[in-house]
Design brief:
Trna Endonuclease, Chain: A, domain 1; two-stranded antiparallel sheet
Length: 153
């Protein structure tokens, strides 16, 4: 985990907007929004992150733990925060009605060149979700996009 001075330098180098800096500060100063739990078919747990100097929660040992291990050992990842503050997703339902849904992303990740929210889902889950909620989950440029989940810059 980096200190406040390093965050200032990172934001200045990447020309982060004032709003982006506010979001980054909010994430860094917040505890996880919720405690993860095991439900049918997943194994939750906690990973003692040296990079973050704290324990990071995961809700899936196949998806989220794999992401944590990648974040932990990647030199491009500066920080990663589990269960960051809830955000509002605005999109259309399958029948075209506008929806606004509160959503807690799996992670907020600060990279050397960007920062943003990330979700960890299997390809199979994304295919199924895109059929039931095509405006919330969509495939773009060989990857997947969750409406409202993006990088700040």
């Amino acid at each position: 985990m980096i200190n406040e001075k390093e965050v200032d330098q990172w934001c200045a180098c990447d020309l982060a907007s004032d709003r982006a800096r506010q979001i980054i500060d909010q994430v860094r100063q917040s505890n996880p929004t919720r405690r993860v739990r095991s439900v049918k078919g997943n194994v939750s747990g906690r990973y003692p992150s040296r990079k973050m100097g704290r324990t990071i929660q995961f809700e899936s040992h196949r998806n989220e733990l794999a992401a944590i291990l990648t974040y932990e050992h990647s030199p491009e990842i500066i920080e990663f925060w589990d269960q960051p503050p809830t955000i509002k997703l605005n999109y259309q339902s399958k029948n075209g009605k506008p929806l606004g849904v509160l959503h807690t992303p799996d992670f907020f990740v600060i990279r050397t060149d960007s920062a943003g929210w990330e979700e960890c889902k299997t390809e199979e889950d994304l295919q199924r979700l895109s059929e039931t909620s095509p405006y919330r989950y969509s495939q773009t440029n060989g990857g997947w996009r969750l409406c409202g989940i993006s990088t700040l810059f």
